[in-house]
Design goal:
The protein is α+β, with helices and mostly antiparallel strands. Helix content is 20%, strand content 32%. The protein contains seven helices and 25 strands.
Length: 392
């Protein structure tokens, strides 16, 4: 649904509580066009305003569902409350591929205007960048390497494909029984990098920024084991005789064949495993929990395993699809993702309000566009080189 620019502005101002009488009337007329129910706008008290805000957003969602056949909303419609915010985010477009981002308590200046900052030297988004470390310790920068065969590791060829992916291809004489000594490779992405690798068994792994994966050049024995730091999205080929396992610190995720995401960044509060398809066992030294699709396991200090049902899977794997999706998270969680993808450092000028953010932004936009969208919610930034300072 594409709303007129004047109406987009009016809705945006109303949701922040800064709409003029004319803008409130415009929103009022638009709202009535979806239903015979009459609700007087403006509403004077904050509590009632929040109630009307929810109803306006619901109208947006209804309008989106009336799109012609073949046109699918970008934001998936989950039952949870975050989807309501995401729906309004979709209608209020800011720049190319960046959506309005709201907080529960927007902050505006004394003139009832949201501060906009001009960034002269924009920082581009990350891209396909990674370093491959071979079994003998030699390294190669994958984004600079030519397509084709890069190395021979035992009976396996390491090949850079035309689309920039890395793949391992076993020779025709390959068999598990012929492997005498396992050789390991490690693929590492820097901040501002991501990469996809096809493992020797055909399983696919996407690595997010500032991550690494250590794996054998050919799987043997009773289990396929890889080691992850940072974040990875896995699509595992099923092999009932040889389960697949991802080790992240003292945590292990064991599968037969499935799709899941593991986030094990050292600066996050917990290691999370989000199951998209299939079934996995999440293990520590003390506990084991089995996940069903749509569930997420969180582990703090490799001890207790907390399983959350019905999580926002789209938000957990958004990075792999080329988006940031924020689902009621604080500004520090937002900025950790920004720092990794744009290879910047972040500091906080003052203690920030405990606001939560929700919305969706494309990851292929420049840093300035992301910061402008965040500023719509009231937070402000200064950028000096690769240092971002976050301010109230």
């Amino acid at each position: 649904m594409q709303l007129p620019e004047q109406l987009q502005t009016a809705i945006r101002h109303y949701l922040r509580g800064i709409a003029t009488e004319e803008e409130r009337q415009l929103v009022n007329d638009w709202y009535y066009s979806f239903s015979d129910d009459e609700i007087e706008i403006p509403i004077e008290t904050t509590g009632e305003r929040e109630q009307i805000k929810e109803q306006i957003i619901q109208r947006v969602m209804q309008a989106m569902n009336k799109e012609p056949a073949g046109i699918q909303p970008v934001v998936p419609m989950y039952r949870r409350k975050w989807a309501v915010a995401a729906a309004i985010a979709l209608t209020l477009t800011v720049g190319v591929g960046a959506y309005y981002l709201a907080t529960r308590s927007p902050v505006i200046d004394e003139n009832n205007k949201v501060t906009q900052t001009s960034y002269n030297d924009d920082i581009p988004p990350g891209g396909n960048r990674a370093t491959l470390t071979l079994a003998d310790g030699s390294t190669m920068i994958l984004d600079e390497a030519a397509n084709g065969t890069l190395a021979q590791q035992g009976n396996t060829q390491v090949v850079k494909l035309d689309d920039g992916q890395l793949a391992y291809t076993a020779n025709s004489t390959y068999s598990y029984e012929t492997i005498t000594v396992e050789q390991y490779n490690t693929i590492s992405t820097p901040r501002g990098g991501q990469y996809m690798v096809v493992l020797p068994d055909g399983s696919k792994v996407w690595l997010n920024a500032a991550s690494s994966l250590k794996y054998p050049t050919a799987f043997s024995g009773s289990k396929r084991i890889v080691e992850l730091t940072g974040e990875g999205y896995f699509e595992i080929v099923k092999n009932g005789k040889m389960p697949f396992a991802v080790k992240a610190g003292e945590t292990e995720v064991e599968v037969l064949g499935t799709v899941f995401n593991v986030n094990s960044y050292a600066d996050e509060e917990e290691i999370t495993t989000t199951l998209v398809e299939g079934s996995v066992n999440v293990k520590t030294k003390w506990l084991t929990k089995q996940l069903k699709p749509g569930e997420q396991a969180g582990i703090v200090q490799n001890r207790d395993i907390t399983v959350k049902p019905d999580v926002n899977v789209a938000a957990a794997v958004a990075w792999k699809e080329g988006y940031f999706i924020f689902d009621e998270v604080d500004i520090k969680t937002v900025m950790r993702q920004v720092a990794r993808w744009y290879n910047v450092d972040v500091r906080y000028d003052s203690e920030l309000l405990p606001e939560t953010y929700y919305g969706k932004i494309k990851r292929n936009t420049g840093l300035s566009e992301v910061l402008r969208v965040l500023e719509e919610s009231g937070v402000s930034f200064t950028v000096e080189g690769n240092l971002i300072t976050v301010q109230k």
